[in-house]
Amino acid sequence: AVVAPGAVHVPGWLGADLRRELVDACRAWGRGPVPFRHTALPGGGVMSVRTVCLGWHWQPYRYSRTADDVNGARVAAFPPWLVGLGRRALAEAYGEDAGAGGVAAGAYGVEAGAGGVAAGAYGVEAGAGGVAAGAGGYTPDTALINFYEGNARMGMHRDREERSTAPVVSLSIGDPCVFRFGNTASRGRPWTDVELRSGDLFVFGGPSRFAYHGVPKVLPGAGDPAAGLAGGRLNITLRETGLPR
Ligand code: MD3
Ligand code: FE
């Protein structure tokens, strides 16, 4: 479903095998070299979610190679198989077929064949085939992995530390949540609430890339036993930082 131009929700995209593989991988990444931690905010608070990063370490409000706010270690590398997963996610959410109309045009809220489609989404020049080329050229180099337990939630915010306009790929596993997708002007209304469930893919590109969003609540559930997750909610976002190397 196209929630807004560039914001595409694909329910149930991850099969059980991939969900389990991701849960296992997140468990391993969460043990180190930089463990899952409640990120400390500059104002003195801490985030209620626990987060671990790959490739680059996010700390409010910048990326670094080492986790200076945790244990000083260099974060785990961003694995090539996640680049592949990100490209597949993009291709399937936006449609491989540039200019074909349908999904690709709908995703960006522009008419089919408009040359601005891929350019708008990726901030690069694009001709025919721009969407497919864009998906192939998509090279996420960081992942932020959030784990929600108990009453953990995430306030309305924008992700602006990346120096790339490439889309963000979001994968959800475990308990369902209310995801709130807002607008680019303020953290207030209008917004659209969407329930995200285990296995859902959400892609945020084009005009949606810098919109306010948040997770006001996680709904009660049993996690995702088929994926080996007994409780809580895992969200994995893939991003291009636009930073060197
Ligand atoms: C829209 N995570 O890590 S995923 C985050 O479920 C974050 O843990 C939420 O917001 C979560 O920054 C929401 C959906 C999401 C992620 C990044 C976005 C939506 C986005 C970046 C730009 C626009
Ligand atoms: Fe975010």
TrEMBL record:
Annotated ranges, domain Fe2OG dioxygenase: 139-242
Cofactor section: Fe(2+)
GO molecular function: dioxygenase activity
Organism domain of life: Bacteria
PROSITE patterns found in the cross-reference section: FE2OG_OXY
Database matches in InterPro entries: Alkb (IPR004574), AlkB-like (IPR027450), AlkB-like_sf (IPR037151), Oxoglu/Fe-dep_dioxygenase_dom (IPR005123)
Keyword vocabulary terms for this entry: Dioxygenase, Iron, Metal-binding, Oxidoreductase
Gene3D superfamilies in UniProt: Alpha-ketoglutarate-dependent dioxygenase AlkB-like (2.60.120.590)
Protein name: Alpha-ketoglutarate-dependent dioxygenase AlkB
Species of the source: Streptomyces zhihengii
